[in-house]
Every structure is written in C-alpha cells, then in structure tokens.
C-alpha cells in the first residue's frame, strides 16, 4: 500500500485536518475543521471532537478586563462587529455566557450575572464532522 500524509492548516475558523497521498502536503481529503476551543482525538479511521476538559472554556470568566474576551484575544463589547471573532470568555463582573446572541450589536453571546432573560446559559456544543 501507499503512504498517507496527515496535515493541518490554520484558518480563520480554526484548524483543518486533511490527508494527502503524496508528501507535498497538498490537501486531498479534508477530515475536520476544529474550533480552537475544542480538543480533537483521532484514530486511524475516525476523528472526533469534544469540549475541552473543563467543560467549555467560555464557562470560566476571566479577570483581565471588565469587558468580554474575543476569539482573537481582544477585550471588547462588540467582538463580532469589530471583526475580533465571537466572545470566548466573560469578565468576572458578568461571569455567565448566555445562549442569546443579542448583545454586542446583536451578534455576540451575552455576558450577564443571570441569564434567565437571555436564553439561559450557553450550552456546550460538540463539533463533529
């Protein structure tokens, strides 16, 4: 049999794992795109993805600013509008990330002390392809 090469490419959406049948590394078959907040476990034929061991990284508030942390590390109330990616952590003064996407100019998950008026707590999501 021939050799198969596993490669990874970082994109704006995360990391895409792919396989190739030559050493050039050119993508032939995409396996999965992983969200940076997840951990992937792969076997020779199966790729699965599950939330980080702490449950969901966004469930742990940060103490670096009084604003939410965006995917690119910026602290802002308008992460998506300002092209910083989605909110990944709420500040300690508003520690709960809610399911509602009505905050930050209507594009970001809400950070609140209580999520009862904002769709409840944001659930952890599995990314499996």
Provide the fold topology:
Layout lengths: L4 E7 L2 E7 L8 E6 L3 E5 L4 E5 L17 E2 L16 E3 L6 E2 L13 E2 L17
Antiparallel strand pairs: 1-2, 2-3, 4-5, 6-7, 8-9
What this model shows, in words?
With 129 residues, the protein is an all-beta fold. The chain contains no helices and 9 strands. The protein has strands spanning 5-11, 14-20, 29-34, 38-42, 47-51, 69-70, 87-89, 96-97, 111-112. The chain has a 3-stranded antiparallel β-sheet with strand order 1-2-3, with no helix packed on it. Strands 4-5 form a two-stranded antiparallel ribbon. Strands 6-7 form a two-stranded antiparallel ribbon. Strand 2 and strand 3 form a beta hairpin. Residues 38-55 have low confidence and may be disordered.
Using brief descriptors, characterize the structure shown.
9 strands; single chain; mainly beta; two-stranded antiparallel ribbon; elongated; 30% strand; 129 residues
Number of helices: 0
Strand order of the biggest β-sheet: 1-2-3
Helix content bin: under 10%
Rg of Cα set: 18 Å
Beta-strand percent range = 25-35%
Q: Spans of 5+ residues with little confidence (pLDDT < 50)?
A: 38-55
Classification by helices and strands: mainly beta
Return the string of H and E elements. Answer: EEEEEEEEE
- Outline type: elongated
Largest sheet: 3 strands, antiparallel
Cα-to-Cα separation, first versus last residue:
26 Å
Mean pLDDT: 75
How many strands in all? 9
Quick recap:
This protein is 0% helix and 30% strand.
């Amino acid at each position: 049999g021939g050799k198969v090469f596993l490669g990874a490419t970082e994109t704006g959406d995360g990391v895409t794992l792919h396989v190739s049948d030559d050493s050039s590394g050119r993508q032939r078959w995409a396996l999965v795109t992983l969200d940076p907040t997840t951990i992937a476990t792969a076997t020779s034929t199966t790729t699965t993805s599950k939330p980080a061991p702490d449950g969901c990284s966004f469930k742990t508030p940060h103490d670096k600013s009084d604003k939410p942390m965006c995917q690119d590390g910026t602290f802002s109330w308008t992460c998506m509008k300002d092209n910083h990616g989605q909110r990944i952590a709420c500040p300690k003064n508003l520690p709960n990330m809610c399911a509602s996407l009505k905050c930050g100019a209507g594009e970001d998950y809400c950070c609140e002390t209580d999520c009862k008026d904002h769709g409840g707590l944001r659930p952890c999501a599995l990314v499996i392809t």
